[in-house]
Amino acid sequence: MKLNEIRDNEGATKNRMRVGRGIGSGKGKTGGRGVKGQTSRTGVAIKGFEGGQMPLYRRLPKRGFNNPSARDLNEVNLGRIQQAVEAGKLDQNAPITIDALIAAGVVSKPRDGVKILGVGELKAKLSFQVNGASKSAVEAIEKAGGSVTLVGAVAQA
Fold it and tell me: Does residue 80 surpass a pLDDT of 70?
């Protein structure tokens, strides 16, 4: 089997029907569009129209809010960082930054930074330079002898 020998199965594809090419073709004259009116012509914009009744998309209430300034942070648990330290992927002496976490394979892309969450146990003494950390994570890091520095932190209301 070679790439230039690959073919569809017999009957898997049909040739397209050329419409509007004479009555003898079976799809001539109106070209499968019926007769007269808006829908027989191009540019029909009638799908949401309900004959003057208030359309469904206007009867339903608006919901929610999409915050344009929300930060999309990577959330990393302490247990996952401890695994990376034990596997030798994270250096205990160097500060733990987003670049170090990407290099260790803990997170895949930088996004808007990293937030440390307190799930799991941290035994290593580490210094973190991150965009956010939960209270439980900060307590666990300081209990293990480490420190947390918030980088580019936005004031919280």
Answer: yes
Q: Which domains does the chain have, with CATH numbers?
A: 17-63 (no CATH), 74-150 (3.100.10.10)
From the list 131, 109, 116, 112, the residue with the least C-alpha distance to 81 is 116
Tokens of 99: 């670049």
Question: What would the two tokens of residue 149 be?
Answer: 């520095």
Please give the backbone phi and psi of residue 70, each rounded to the nearest 5 degrees, phi first.
-70, 140
Q: What is the DSSP letter of 26?
A: S
Task: Please enumerate in sequence order all residues whose Cβ is within 8 A of that of 120, keeping only pairs 6 or more positions apart, or say none.
Answer: 77, 78, 79, 80, 81, 82
Measured CA to CA in angstroms, residue 150 lies from 26, 116, 131, 141 at distances of 72, 11, 5, 13
- Half-sphere exposure (Cβ direction) of 140: Cα atoms closer than 13 Å: 19
Enumerate the H helices of the chain as residue ranges. 56-59, 78-86, 98-104, 135-143
Q: How many angstroms separate the CA atoms of 31 and 16, rounded?
A: 13
Q: What is the pTM of this model?
A: 0.61
